[in-house]
Design goal:
Elements (H helix, E strand, L loop, with lengths): L8 H23 L1 H27 L3 H12 L20 H7 L2
Helix pairs in contact: 1-2
Length: 103
Amino acid sequence: MMNYLMPQKKSNNMAMAAGIAVIAGVALVTAIPHTRKICSKWIINTLDGLRDRMAKNRNGGSWEHDLASAEKLKGPVNKRRNTSKIDVPSAGTNAWKEDWSSE
């Protein structure tokens, strides 16, 4: 059976080297208090920036801009259909009453 995730021996060695580098970096950061403080501040600031950016994208658009872009998507006003008008030929008849009462 072939391993599709890591088909070659080189990939296994590279993944092991990357894992060791990550573990050594985390150990170095947590071992030195000054570095730990700097890294934790950087991580907190980065996450706060991402959270602010996501909140801005979620709630940042003004409703006037959203309404204007929705009106553009509808097309020109003179080419829009009148949705209050019913274009069914039998809508004005009482044939439905006769069908219902005959059951």
